[in-house]
Design goal:
- The complex is a heterodimer of chains A (352) and B (148).
- Chain A has 352 residues and is an alpha/beta fold.
- Helices cover 40% and strands 11% of the residues of chain A.
- In chain A, helix 4 (134-144) packs parallel to helix 5 (169-178).
- Chain A has a single domain (2-33, 45-351), classed as Alpha-Beta Barrel (TIM Barrel), CATH 3.20.20.140.
- In chain A, strand 2 (81-85), helix 3 and strand 3 form a beta-alpha-beta unit.
- The radius of gyration of chain A is 19 Å and the shape is globular.
- With 148 residues, chain B is mostly beta strands.
- Chain B has one domain (2-118, 128-139): Rieske Iron-sulfur Protein, CATH 2.102.10.10.
- In chain B, 9% of the residues lie in helices and 47% in strands.
- Chain B has helices at residues 118-122, 127-130, 143-147; strands spanning 3-13, 22-27, 30-37, 40-45, 59-66, 72-82, 89-91, 108-109, 111-114, 133-142.
- The longest helix of chain B has 5 residues, at 118-122.
- The chains are: A alpha/beta (352), B mainly beta (148).
- Chain A binds chain B through residues 44-46, 50-53, 288, 290, 319-323, 325-327, and chain B through 50-54, 57-59, 82, 84-87.
- The structure holds FE2/S2 (inorganic) cluster.
């Protein structure tokens, strides 16, 4: 079983010191890690994580506890392979000072390789990257892209530009060269160099931010399609993590309708958008939808070719964690193996 | 043939479950949370109806309400259990979901205190036993009883 989305973190900034230059280290020592700039500090659960992952009266962040990952996730849920999407990104990958951002990304990746990947063969890594500066991001992909445990390049949804735009092409070329998937996950919307966390502005409450996240994925997805990203990179796969998937069928219909009506404006888009989506985009199960009536789930799964496009993710140890057994029971029996394992192998070439 | 009867399963001496506290125990093979709320005892299955989280490990708090937007108020402090995963809230006294009470609930069991056995009440030096036991009543199929 493959878990495509789990989140680890450093317990203390000092863990990064050995991986930084003297210059960057001093800055980190004196000022600390960049934080979320959008002030949405409240989330769900306890401190955004599963409340049952904190021992009685104890405050240690579960994201920092590799023992807990082993006990509750790898062993507890029978996960053979878990892809680490760092929890480190708030602020770091949205800094205007792109050199400092790149240094912190490098340090975090190196620290993860040594302290997580090196300590359990079931972990894999999606590289944390300074995507706000594609040139530096590409350097980091070339530096670590051939490490056997590195399977993806992590792109946060908050970004100064839509990801189909050509300034990002060198990143995709590097991904293809090293056999990495691009793993898109929300984060950093409204932070630093990025636009606000909804297209219409800053909402008052976290429930709103949480609810309307699919709009980021939709905007990046439109961009990939109409910029012709998959014409340029016909083998690139993009994992949409924690995007929800209930919106996918209707998005596909709308995308096809847009293309049929406006095709001549972007003639490099050769196929129905739904075909690009089916071939290149993979959606994570988490947060799993609870449609009403529950039978609607079958239509939903059918409307997105879930047997090919849906991949299991738990989001451990976050508060909106989904356990594989409960999710598996909600899928048609014939689809389980594909969703819990096979589709991830088809998406991340280096998992094989 | 068999008939269902309620059998008391001991949880702990009364003194070990003080006001506002809970105990998670395994009774008859099921994980069950037993709560002391205002001196009354309530027992819930330790399994959330949503995705199966150990719901009884969640935080106990009150029911936040508001008579109008932006005016939050707290009621029923200590009677609402929040699932440690996705945060669904349950009324500990009924097991019912706060959001969808008619539709969603955690399985609940009757709970209470059984008086101590006669001997323990006389032998005052055994304080623990003389207090009585918190018990949870669980339905059991009792074949023998019918036969006799
Ligand atoms: S498992 Fe309890 S709220 Fe989801």
């Amino acid at each position: 079983m493959v878990d495509t989305d789990v989140h680890h973190q450093v317990r203390d900034k000092s863990e990064l010191y050995p991986y930084l230059s003297r210059h960057d280290r001093q800055r980190l020592e004196e000022f600390g890690l960049p934080r979320n700039g959008n002030l949405y500090q409240s989330s769900g659960g306890f401190k955004g994580a599963r409340a049952d992952c904190f021992g009685a009266g104890e405050d240690v962040d579960p994201r920092t506890r590799i023992d807990l990952f082993k006990e509750k996730l790898l062993d507890g849920c029978g996960i053979d392979c878990a892809i680490l999407q760092g929890e480190y990104t708030p602020g770091v990958v949205a800094l205007m000072d792109v050199d400092y951002s790149a240094a912190l990304c490098r340090a975090y990746n190196d620290w993860t390789l040594e302290h997580w990947i090196g300590r359990d063969p079931r972990f894999r890594l999606a590289l944390t990257l300074p995507l706000q500066n594609p040139e530096l991001a590409v350097k980091e992909i070339h530096r670590l892209g051939d490490h056997p445990a590195v399977v993806a390049a992590y792109a946060v949804c908050g970004s100064p530009r839509l990801y189909g735009q050509r300034c990002y092409d060198p990143i995709y070329a590097a991904c293809v060269e090293h056999g990495l998937a691009l793993a898109l996950h929300f984060s950093n919307e409204g932070n630093g160099v990025n636009p606000p966390p909804t297209a219409a502005g800053h909402p008052s409450y976290y429930a709103e931010t949480y609810l309307v996240r699919p709009q980021f994925y939709q905007a990046h997805l439109s961009s990939f399609i109409f910029e012709g990203t998959f014409e340029k990179f016909p083998t690139l796969k993009v994992a949409f993590l924690e995007s929800g998937f209930g919106w996918v069928p209707s998005f596909r219909w709308r995308a096809d309708a847009s293309w049929k009506a406006l095709r001549a404006q972007t003639p490099w888009v050769k196929r129905l958008p739904s075909e690009y989506i089916a071939e290149h985009i993979r959606f994570s199960t988490q947060p799993f939808e609870d449609p009403e009536p529950p039978e609607a789930m079958l239509h939903l799964l059918e409307g997105m070719n879930a047997d090919k496009t849906l991949m299991f993710a738990s989001d451990f140890p976050h508060w909106d964690f989904d356990p594989p057994d409960a999710i598996s029971r909600k899928l048609p029996a014939a689809m389980r193996q594909r969703v819990l394992s096979d589709n991830a192998f088809d998406t991340y070439p280096k998992l094989k | 043939m068999s008939a269902a009867t309620l059998t008391p399963y001991p949880v702990c001496p009364v003194g070990e479950l003080p006001l506002g506290k809970r105990k998670i125990v395994t009774l008859k093979g099921r994980s069950i949370g037993v709560f002391n709320i205002g001196g009354r005892y309530f027992a819930l299955q330790n399994r959330c109806p949503h995705r199966g989280a150990p719901v009884c490990e969640g935080r106990l708090g009150g029911f936040f309400t508001a008579s109008e937007p932006y005016a939050p108020a707290l009621e029923r402090e200590g009677e609402i259990l929040r699932c440690p995963w996705h945060g669904w809230e349950f009324d500990v006294t009924t097991g019912r979901s706060v959001c969808q009470p008619e539709k969603v609930r955690v399985k609940s069991y009757p709970a209470g205190v059984e008086p101590p056995p006669e001997t323990a009440r006389v032998e005052k030096y055994d304080v623990t036993e003389s207090e009585g036991q918190v018990v949870v009543w669980i339905v059991t199929e009792n074949v023998e009883k019918l036969k006799s």
